[in-house]
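We emphasize that the prediction below concerns an isolated chain of 95 residues; any contacts that depend on oligomerization or on bound cofactors are therefore not represented. The input was used exactly as deposited, without trimming of termini.
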Amino acid sequence: MKNEKIAFAERFKELREENKWKKIEVAKLLNCSKSLITEYEQGKKLPRFEMLVKMRKIFRKPVEYIMGEINDTKEIIIYTEAPTVKPENKKKEGQ
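Result of the prediction step, given as a token string:
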């Protein structure tokens, strides 16, 4: 399995290139410096949560995909309701 910085770096660059955006254009969209974009693509830094939210919006992809954790957006499981948990049957003390 790839290092998380490398997985993110490769996916981030791939998404930028798919959109035919220059580094400076992505920097403007994310409201950051071009040097930060370079650091992301070189695997030197991982984005903070707030930056991931911005990336999700501009790339229109789930965070797990952007981070390189999954390779297909169909792998995302969306829960519409909280899973139900059955309470354990515990014997009362003294029984």
